[in-house]
Amino acid sequence: MTTPASGPSGSEPPAPVLLTEPAEGTPDVVADLDTLERAARRIAAGTGPIAVDTERASGYRYSQRAYLVQVRREGAGTFLIDPVAVDDRVEPLVEALGTGEWVLHAASQDLPCLADLGLHPAKLFDTELAGRLAGFERVALGTLVELLLGYHLEKGHGAADWSRRPLPVDWLNYAALDVELLVQLRDALEAELREQGKLEWALEEFEALRTAPPAPPRKEPWRRTSGIHSVRTQRGLAGIRALWEARDTLARERDIAPGRVLPDSAIIQAASVNPADESALLQLPVFKGRAQRRQVGTWMRALRTAAELPKSELPDPAPATDGPPPANRWADKDPEAAARLSAARTALGKIAEENRLPVENLLQPDLLRRTCWTPPADLDVEAVTETLHAGGARTWQTNLVAEAVATALRATAS
Question: Relative to the CA of 356, which of 21, 34, 245, 382 has its CA 20 to 30 Å away?
Protein backbone atom coordinates (compact mmCIF):
# COMPACT_ATOMS: atom_id res chain seq x y z
CA MET A 1 0.00 0.00 0.00
CA THR A 2 1.36 3.41 -0.89
CA THR A 3 1.44 6.54 1.24
CA PRO A 4 -0.06 9.59 -0.49
CA ALA A 5 1.45 12.93 0.49
CA SER A 6 -0.63 14.80 3.04
CA GLY A 7 -0.53 16.35 6.49
CA PRO A 8 0.83 19.62 7.82
CA SER A 9 3.43 19.93 5.08
CA GLY A 10 1.69 18.05 2.27
CA SER A 11 -1.33 18.24 -0.01
CA GLU A 12 -4.90 17.22 0.71
CA PRO A 13 -5.32 13.42 0.78
CA PRO A 14 -7.45 11.67 -1.84
CA ALA A 15 -10.89 10.29 -1.00
CA PRO A 16 -10.30 7.50 1.52
CA VAL A 17 -10.75 3.85 0.62
CA LEU A 18 -12.95 2.01 3.11
CA LEU A 19 -11.37 -1.03 4.79
CA THR A 20 -13.81 -3.36 6.55
CA GLU A 21 -11.54 -6.39 6.93
CA PRO A 22 -7.82 -7.17 6.67
CA ALA A 23 -6.36 -7.66 3.19
CA GLU A 24 -5.42 -11.24 4.09
CA GLY A 25 -8.80 -12.06 5.61
CA THR A 26 -9.90 -12.44 9.22
CA PRO A 27 -7.12 -14.08 11.25
CA ASP A 28 -7.94 -17.02 13.47
CA VAL A 29 -7.49 -16.41 17.18
CA VAL A 30 -4.33 -17.94 18.64
CA ALA A 31 -5.77 -19.77 21.64
CA ASP A 32 -3.39 -22.63 22.51
CA LEU A 33 0.33 -22.97 23.17
CA ASP A 34 1.17 -25.00 20.05
CA THR A 35 -0.43 -22.38 17.79
CA LEU A 36 1.25 -19.61 19.76
CA GLU A 37 4.67 -21.20 19.27
CA ARG A 38 4.08 -21.48 15.51
CA ALA A 39 2.91 -17.87 15.39
CA ALA A 40 5.96 -16.75 17.36
CA ARG A 41 8.30 -18.48 14.90
CA ARG A 42 6.64 -16.69 12.01
CA ILE A 43 6.84 -13.33 13.76
CA ALA A 44 10.53 -13.87 14.54
CA ALA A 45 11.17 -14.72 10.89
CA GLY A 46 9.46 -11.52 9.70
CA THR A 47 11.23 -8.29 8.92
CA GLY A 48 11.04 -4.68 10.02
CA PRO A 49 9.08 -3.01 12.83
CA ILE A 50 6.34 -4.91 14.65
CA ALA A 51 2.86 -3.43 14.97
CA VAL A 52 1.36 -4.18 18.39
CA ASP A 53 -2.00 -3.40 19.98
CA THR A 54 -4.21 -4.73 22.77
CA GLU A 55 -7.88 -4.89 23.58
CA ARG A 56 -9.13 -4.59 27.16
CA ALA A 57 -12.57 -4.58 28.75
CA SER A 58 -12.32 -1.46 30.86
CA GLY A 59 -16.02 -0.67 30.93
CA TYR A 60 -16.91 -4.23 31.90
CA ARG A 61 -14.08 -5.65 34.00
CA TYR A 62 -12.20 -4.41 37.06
CA SER A 63 -8.95 -5.74 35.66
CA GLN A 64 -7.06 -3.70 33.08
CA ARG A 65 -5.52 -6.85 31.63
CA ALA A 66 -5.22 -7.53 27.90
CA TYR A 67 -7.90 -9.86 26.59
CA LEU A 68 -6.44 -9.80 23.08
CA VAL A 69 -2.99 -8.94 21.77
CA GLN A 70 -2.64 -8.03 18.10
CA VAL A 71 0.72 -8.38 16.35
CA ARG A 72 1.61 -7.76 12.72
CA ARG A 73 4.96 -7.88 10.94
CA GLU A 74 6.05 -7.79 7.33
CA GLY A 75 6.57 -11.31 6.01
CA ALA A 76 4.65 -12.87 8.89
CA GLY A 77 1.12 -11.45 8.75
CA THR A 78 -1.32 -10.56 11.51
CA PHE A 79 -1.87 -12.59 14.66
CA LEU A 80 -4.67 -12.21 17.20
CA ILE A 81 -3.48 -13.78 20.43
CA ASP A 82 -5.78 -14.67 23.33
CA PRO A 83 -3.56 -14.52 26.43
CA VAL A 84 -6.38 -15.76 28.68
CA ALA A 85 -6.67 -19.00 26.71
CA VAL A 86 -2.97 -19.77 27.29
CA ASP A 87 -3.03 -18.71 30.95
CA ASP A 88 -0.85 -15.70 30.12
CA ARG A 89 2.00 -18.03 29.16
CA VAL A 90 3.23 -15.93 26.27
CA GLU A 91 6.96 -16.66 26.59
CA PRO A 92 7.23 -17.63 22.89
CA LEU A 93 5.89 -14.20 21.99
CA VAL A 94 8.35 -12.48 24.35
CA GLU A 95 11.22 -14.15 22.51
CA ALA A 96 9.75 -13.51 19.06
CA LEU A 97 9.37 -9.78 19.62
CA GLY A 98 12.95 -9.71 20.87
CA THR A 99 14.85 -6.55 20.10
CA GLY A 100 12.58 -5.39 17.28
CA GLU A 101 10.99 -1.95 17.22
CA TRP A 102 7.40 -1.97 18.39
CA VAL A 103 4.89 0.37 16.79
CA LEU A 104 1.91 1.27 18.95
CA HIS A 105 -0.75 3.96 18.83
CA ALA A 106 -1.17 5.72 22.19
CA ALA A 107 1.41 3.40 23.73
CA SER A 108 0.81 4.57 27.30
CA GLN A 109 -2.58 2.83 27.19
CA ASP A 110 -1.17 -0.53 26.10
CA LEU A 111 2.27 -0.78 27.70
CA PRO A 112 1.02 -1.50 31.26
CA CYS A 113 -1.09 -4.53 30.29
CA LEU A 114 1.66 -5.77 27.95
CA ALA A 115 4.15 -5.46 30.82
CA ASP A 116 1.82 -7.58 32.96
CA LEU A 117 2.36 -10.33 30.37
CA GLY A 118 6.13 -9.90 30.50
CA LEU A 119 6.20 -8.03 27.18
CA HIS A 120 8.53 -5.01 27.13
CA PRO A 121 9.68 -3.19 23.98
CA ALA A 122 13.39 -2.78 23.32
CA LYS A 123 12.56 0.13 21.00
CA LEU A 124 9.32 2.06 20.57
CA PHE A 125 7.53 4.24 18.01
CA ASP A 126 4.22 5.77 19.15
CA THR A 127 2.15 6.95 16.19
CA GLU A 128 -0.23 9.03 18.31
CA LEU A 129 2.62 10.90 19.99
CA ALA A 130 4.35 11.28 16.63
CA GLY A 131 1.18 12.84 15.24
CA ARG A 132 1.05 15.35 18.08
CA LEU A 133 4.67 16.35 17.59
CA ALA A 134 4.10 16.66 13.86
CA GLY A 135 1.36 19.19 14.51
CA PHE A 136 -1.76 17.27 13.54
CA GLU A 137 -4.82 18.64 15.32
CA ARG A 138 -6.51 15.22 15.50
CA VAL A 139 -4.41 12.17 16.23
CA ALA A 140 -6.84 9.27 16.52
CA LEU A 141 -5.61 6.22 14.63
CA GLY A 142 -8.41 6.32 12.08
CA THR A 143 -7.90 10.03 11.45
CA LEU A 144 -4.15 9.74 10.86
CA VAL A 145 -4.56 6.67 8.64
CA GLU A 146 -7.09 8.57 6.56
CA LEU A 147 -4.98 11.72 6.30
CA LEU A 148 -1.64 10.09 5.61
CA LEU A 149 -2.47 6.78 3.95
CA GLY A 150 -5.81 7.41 2.31
CA TYR A 151 -7.74 4.59 3.98
CA HIS A 152 -10.82 4.70 6.19
CA LEU A 153 -10.80 2.00 8.88
CA GLU A 154 -14.03 0.33 9.88
CA LYS A 155 -14.25 1.22 13.57
CA GLY A 156 -16.75 0.93 16.37
CA HIS A 157 -15.78 -1.84 18.80
CA GLY A 158 -13.10 -0.17 20.90
CA ALA A 159 -15.35 0.03 23.96
CA ALA A 160 -16.72 -3.51 23.58
CA ASP A 161 -16.49 -6.25 26.20
CA TRP A 162 -13.34 -7.97 24.96
CA SER A 163 -13.57 -10.55 27.75
CA ARG A 164 -16.46 -12.10 25.82
CA ARG A 165 -15.85 -15.49 24.24
CA PRO A 166 -16.05 -16.34 21.44
CA LEU A 167 -15.25 -12.98 19.89
CA PRO A 168 -17.51 -12.05 16.94
CA VAL A 169 -15.93 -11.93 13.49
CA ASP A 170 -16.56 -8.20 13.08
CA TRP A 171 -14.71 -7.58 16.35
CA LEU A 172 -11.78 -9.66 15.10
CA ASN A 173 -11.70 -7.64 11.90
CA TYR A 174 -11.70 -4.43 13.93
CA ALA A 175 -8.82 -5.69 16.08
CA ALA A 176 -6.79 -6.81 13.06
CA LEU A 177 -7.33 -3.51 11.26
CA ASP A 178 -5.83 -1.68 14.24
CA VAL A 179 -2.43 -3.12 13.24
CA GLU A 180 -3.02 -3.57 9.50
CA LEU A 181 -1.55 -0.19 8.51
CA LEU A 182 0.33 0.75 11.67
CA VAL A 183 3.82 0.26 10.24
CA GLN A 184 2.94 2.21 7.08
CA LEU A 185 1.59 4.98 9.30
CA ARG A 186 4.81 4.90 11.30
CA ASP A 187 6.84 5.37 8.11
CA ALA A 188 4.68 8.26 6.94
CA LEU A 189 4.95 10.00 10.30
CA GLU A 190 8.68 9.46 10.47
CA ALA A 191 9.02 11.14 7.07
CA GLU A 192 6.84 14.03 8.25
CA LEU A 193 8.85 14.48 11.44
CA ARG A 194 12.14 14.31 9.55
CA GLU A 195 10.96 16.95 7.11
CA GLN A 196 9.96 19.23 10.01
CA GLY A 197 13.25 18.67 11.84
CA LYS A 198 11.47 17.00 14.76
CA LEU A 199 12.50 13.38 14.40
CA GLU A 200 15.11 13.55 17.16
CA TRP A 201 12.51 15.14 19.44
CA ALA A 202 10.16 12.25 18.79
CA LEU A 203 12.83 9.60 19.34
CA GLU A 204 13.66 11.17 22.70
CA GLU A 205 9.97 11.17 23.65
CA PHE A 206 9.54 7.54 22.62
CA GLU A 207 12.49 6.47 24.72
CA ALA A 208 11.21 8.40 27.74
CA LEU A 209 7.85 6.69 27.33
CA ARG A 210 9.45 3.26 26.90
CA THR A 211 11.57 3.56 30.03
CA ALA A 212 9.06 5.36 32.27
CA PRO A 213 8.50 3.58 35.59
CA PRO A 214 5.01 2.26 36.40
CA ALA A 215 2.68 4.95 37.64
CA PRO A 216 2.36 4.90 41.45
CA PRO A 217 -1.08 4.17 42.94
CA ARG A 218 -3.28 7.24 43.20
CA LYS A 219 -3.57 8.83 46.61
CA GLU A 220 -7.17 8.85 47.80
CA PRO A 221 -8.60 7.48 44.53
CA TRP A 222 -12.13 7.84 45.91
CA ARG A 223 -11.81 11.60 45.40
CA ARG A 224 -12.15 11.00 41.65
CA THR A 225 -15.79 10.01 42.11
CA SER A 226 -17.75 11.96 39.51
CA GLY A 227 -19.83 14.71 41.13
CA ILE A 228 -17.84 14.84 44.36
CA HIS A 229 -17.54 18.62 44.06
CA SER A 230 -21.23 18.90 45.04
CA VAL A 231 -20.59 17.40 48.50
CA ARG A 232 -19.27 20.07 50.87
CA THR A 233 -19.23 18.44 54.31
CA GLN A 234 -16.53 16.20 55.77
CA ARG A 235 -19.21 13.73 56.88
CA GLY A 236 -20.56 13.59 53.35
CA LEU A 237 -17.05 12.99 52.00
CA ALA A 238 -16.64 10.19 54.53
CA GLY A 239 -19.79 8.60 53.12
CA ILE A 240 -18.42 8.82 49.60
CA ARG A 241 -15.15 7.27 50.70
CA ALA A 242 -16.88 4.41 52.54
CA LEU A 243 -19.21 3.61 49.64
CA TRP A 244 -16.37 3.88 47.12
CA GLU A 245 -14.20 1.47 49.12
CA ALA A 246 -17.07 -1.01 49.58
CA ARG A 247 -17.80 -0.86 45.85
CA ASP A 248 -14.13 -1.28 45.00
CA THR A 249 -13.88 -4.41 47.13
CA LEU A 250 -16.92 -5.97 45.46
CA ALA A 251 -15.74 -4.98 41.98
CA ARG A 252 -12.26 -6.42 42.53
CA GLU A 253 -13.61 -9.70 43.95
CA ARG A 254 -16.00 -10.15 41.02
CA ASP A 255 -13.77 -8.61 38.33
CA ILE A 256 -16.54 -6.21 37.32
CA ALA A 257 -16.04 -2.56 36.39
CA PRO A 258 -16.88 -0.49 39.50
CA GLY A 259 -19.42 1.63 37.65
CA ARG A 260 -21.40 -1.52 36.88
CA VAL A 261 -21.48 -2.46 40.56
CA LEU A 262 -22.72 0.97 41.66
CA PRO A 263 -22.70 4.16 39.58
CA ASP A 264 -20.86 7.22 40.86
CA SER A 265 -24.14 9.14 40.80
CA ALA A 266 -25.63 6.69 43.29
CA ILE A 267 -22.65 7.08 45.63
CA ILE A 268 -23.01 10.87 45.55
CA GLN A 269 -26.75 10.76 46.14
CA ALA A 270 -26.56 8.29 49.03
CA ALA A 271 -23.75 10.22 50.74
CA SER A 272 -25.65 13.48 50.30
CA VAL A 273 -29.00 12.16 51.58
CA ASN A 274 -27.45 9.96 54.30
CA PRO A 275 -30.52 7.69 54.65
CA ALA A 276 -31.40 6.53 58.15
CA ASP A 277 -31.91 2.87 57.29
CA GLU A 278 -32.03 0.31 54.49
CA SER A 279 -35.64 1.13 53.71
CA ALA A 280 -34.80 4.79 53.13
CA LEU A 281 -31.77 3.85 51.05
CA LEU A 282 -33.91 1.64 48.81
CA GLN A 283 -36.14 4.63 48.04
CA LEU A 284 -33.31 6.33 46.16
CA PRO A 285 -33.61 5.81 42.38
CA VAL A 286 -30.59 3.61 41.60
CA PHE A 287 -30.97 1.57 44.78
CA LYS A 288 -34.44 0.40 43.73
CA GLY A 289 -32.90 -2.02 41.24
CA ARG A 290 -32.66 -5.76 41.93
CA ALA A 291 -28.85 -5.79 42.09
CA GLN A 292 -28.76 -2.96 44.62
CA ARG A 293 -31.46 -4.53 46.75
CA ARG A 294 -29.24 -7.61 47.08
CA GLN A 295 -26.35 -5.43 48.26
CA VAL A 296 -28.30 -2.96 50.36
CA GLY A 297 -26.74 -4.29 53.56
CA THR A 298 -23.24 -3.65 52.18
CA TRP A 299 -24.04 -0.07 51.23
CA MET A 300 -25.83 0.66 54.50
CA ARG A 301 -22.96 -0.69 56.58
CA ALA A 302 -20.58 1.60 54.70
CA LEU A 303 -22.77 4.62 55.36
CA ARG A 304 -23.12 3.77 59.04
CA THR A 305 -19.38 3.35 59.39
CA ALA A 306 -18.88 6.81 57.90
CA ALA A 307 -21.58 8.29 60.15
CA GLU A 308 -19.91 6.92 63.28
CA LEU A 309 -16.37 8.08 62.54
CA PRO A 310 -14.86 10.48 65.07
CA LYS A 311 -14.09 13.93 63.72
CA SER A 312 -10.36 13.20 63.79
CA GLU A 313 -10.84 10.45 61.18
CA LEU A 314 -12.98 12.41 58.74
CA PRO A 315 -11.35 13.20 55.39
CA ASP A 316 -9.98 16.67 54.79
CA PRO A 317 -12.25 18.87 52.65
CA ALA A 318 -9.45 19.30 50.09
CA PRO A 319 -7.30 16.46 48.71
CA ALA A 320 -3.75 16.12 49.95
CA THR A 321 -1.17 17.31 47.45
CA ASP A 322 2.60 17.56 47.30
CA GLY A 323 2.52 20.29 44.69
CA PRO A 324 1.39 23.89 44.42
CA PRO A 325 -2.25 24.90 44.89
CA PRO A 326 -4.57 25.19 41.88
CA ALA A 327 -3.38 27.98 39.58
CA ASN A 328 -6.65 29.89 39.91
CA ARG A 329 -5.79 30.54 43.58
CA TRP A 330 -2.29 31.83 42.97
CA ALA A 331 -3.27 35.47 42.63
CA ASP A 332 -4.51 35.47 46.24
CA LYS A 333 -1.86 33.19 47.76
CA ASP A 334 1.24 34.43 45.92
CA PRO A 335 0.74 37.22 43.35
CA GLU A 336 4.38 37.06 42.25
CA ALA A 337 4.08 33.35 41.49
CA ALA A 338 0.90 34.06 39.54
CA ALA A 339 2.76 36.69 37.50
CA ARG A 340 5.60 34.25 36.85
CA LEU A 341 3.20 31.59 35.62
CA SER A 342 1.33 34.01 33.39
CA ALA A 343 4.53 35.27 31.79
CA ALA A 344 5.90 31.75 31.30
CA ARG A 345 2.63 30.47 29.81
CA THR A 346 2.59 33.35 27.33
CA ALA A 347 6.17 32.65 26.29
CA LEU A 348 5.59 28.90 25.91
CA GLY A 349 2.42 29.50 23.95
CA LYS A 350 4.40 31.46 21.37
CA ILE A 351 7.11 28.79 21.15
CA ALA A 352 4.52 26.05 20.73
CA GLU A 353 2.79 27.99 17.96
CA GLU A 354 6.08 28.65 16.16
CA ASN A 355 6.94 24.96 16.26
CA ARG A 356 3.43 23.67 15.54
CA LEU A 357 3.26 21.74 18.79
CA PRO A 358 0.60 21.32 21.48
CA VAL A 359 1.89 23.38 24.40
CA GLU A 360 1.40 20.43 26.75
CA ASN A 361 3.88 18.44 24.64
CA LEU A 362 6.33 21.32 24.68
CA LEU A 363 6.53 21.14 28.47
CA GLN A 364 4.44 19.24 31.00
CA PRO A 365 2.00 21.78 32.52
CA ASP A 366 2.50 20.46 36.06
CA LEU A 367 6.27 20.90 35.75
CA LEU A 368 5.80 24.49 34.59
CA ARG A 369 3.51 25.21 37.55
CA ARG A 370 5.95 23.70 40.04
CA THR A 371 8.85 25.67 38.56
CA CYS A 372 6.93 28.93 38.71
CA TRP A 373 5.65 28.31 42.24
CA THR A 374 9.09 27.42 43.59
CA PRO A 375 11.70 28.72 41.14
CA PRO A 376 15.39 27.83 41.50
CA ALA A 377 17.58 30.12 43.60
CA ASP A 378 19.44 31.20 40.48
CA LEU A 379 17.30 32.36 37.60
CA ASP A 380 19.82 31.87 34.82
CA VAL A 381 19.27 29.47 31.92
CA GLU A 382 21.60 26.83 33.35
CA ALA A 383 19.76 26.65 36.68
CA VAL A 384 16.36 26.59 35.01
CA THR A 385 17.54 23.85 32.64
CA GLU A 386 18.71 21.78 35.59
CA THR A 387 15.40 22.29 37.39
CA LEU A 388 13.38 21.27 34.34
CA HIS A 389 15.54 18.19 33.73
CA ALA A 390 15.12 17.16 37.36
CA GLY A 391 11.37 17.41 36.86
CA GLY A 392 11.42 15.09 33.85
CA ALA A 393 11.79 17.47 30.90
CA ARG A 394 13.65 16.07 27.90
CA THR A 395 16.68 17.71 26.35
CA TRP A 396 14.82 18.85 23.25
CA GLN A 397 12.24 20.53 25.47
CA THR A 398 14.76 22.42 27.62
CA ASN A 399 16.61 23.50 24.50
CA LEU A 400 13.40 25.17 23.34
CA VAL A 401 12.00 26.57 26.57
CA ALA A 402 14.68 27.07 29.23
CA GLU A 403 15.70 30.55 28.13
CA ALA A 404 12.08 31.72 27.81
CA VAL A 405 11.17 30.31 31.24
CA ALA A 406 14.25 31.89 32.83
CA THR A 407 13.37 35.24 31.27
CA ALA A 408 9.80 34.99 32.59
CA LEU A 409 11.06 34.17 36.08
CA ARG A 410 13.52 37.08 36.07
CA ALA A 411 11.01 39.57 34.70
CA THR A 412 8.69 39.05 37.66
CA ALA A 413 11.36 38.69 40.38
CA SER A 414 11.01 41.12 43.26
Answer: 382
